[in-house]
Amino acid sequence: xxxxxxxxxxxxxxxxxxxxxxxxxxxxxxxxxxxxxxxxxxxxxxxxxxxxxxxxxxxxxxxxxxxxxxxxxxxxxxxxxxxxxxxxxxxxxxxxxxxxxxxxxxxxxxxxxxxxxxxxxxxxxxxxxxxxxxxxxxxxxxxxxxxxxxxxxxxxxxxxxxxxxxxxxxxxxxxxxxxxxxxxxxxxxxxxxxxxxxxxxxxxxxxxxxxxxxxxxxxxxxxxxxxxxxxxxxxxxxxxxxxxxxxxxxxxxxxxxxxxxxxxxxxxxxxxxxxxxxxxxxxxxxxxxxxxxxxxxxxxxxxxxxxxxxxxxxxxxxxxxxxxxxxxxxxxxxxxxxxxxxxxxxxxxxxxxxxxxxxxxxxxxxxxxxxxxxxxxxxxxxxxxxxxxxxxxxxxxxxxxxxxxxxxxxxxxxxxxxxx
Length: 420
Known about the structure:
single chain, 420 residues, alpha/beta, Rossmann fold, three-stranded antiparallel sheet, 17 helices, 13 strands, 38% helix, elongated
């Protein structure tokens, strides 16, 4: 007998990393890697020292109440984890850590080289009888380079890796701008996560784990887009430019004021006949074609079947058409609010953006449609809090995340699991 629709209960989605056990030594450098793995369904156990990791004391705090369990930094970087407190300066704490590590699929740590070795719990010692364990180390320069001992900060890693050189304004009398928000740590954590997952696939095929040695400096250097490549192969130094990619030569700006005074990010240019047609039709629909003297160039672009960027600067007509397409989009933006321009351009197939605050992003209908803002229950506070959600989507990607653990919240639970 066929079931009524109301009787049908779909099978729960199995998270992509469900069943994967991760042990993480609490750290600034690698917390984001553990968060990503946890949000994707892994059981991430974060090991904290007595009194909690130092990052629990970073401000700001919820309701401006300084408390290790109200730290917004900790909340953001430790979602979907469980917390256990261990004193690694004691033999009992080290023994418990070894037991945790040997029962894990992945261990992530970001201690300075030599620290864990002196405690007798480094990867060579811990993996000796458990070669299938994947051990991920995140350190400023990796474990092998001579400068591994040099102190670093997020800023010095960004500067040394080259990202700071690329960020800033056309006016080079203004100092470079540092990407904010722990950017170097995020980049290194992304490499740590990808390295861990790659090693996990290898382990599933061979039965053998490995040591993944992540250099934060190298991770930040290889994510400078083409800057390092241009230097290595062409010996050219790229220069920072306002709101666009660094380049060896000046390029046209892409951020323009909209009609409401806010800024939008316009496409670099139009090149296809279809794009020129869209721009011309848009001008006509807004009733402003007559206000744009270069509109006839758009029709020329349609008649030519578009223009190739390869001939710009040598083909006078193509160069004029190309420039008119760019000016048409900026002119349209000047007649609309930033939000109107963004929505209409996207609807018409023209890639662009609008400059919004973080709060506005969370309220944006596009982000809401893909489930990016999520409500996370904080029963200890008696309310839910809006969080940025998982930056991935797919059939086996969870749609929700759990709040970060309270200090030592799962210590008894995890110790009981080890005894079992």
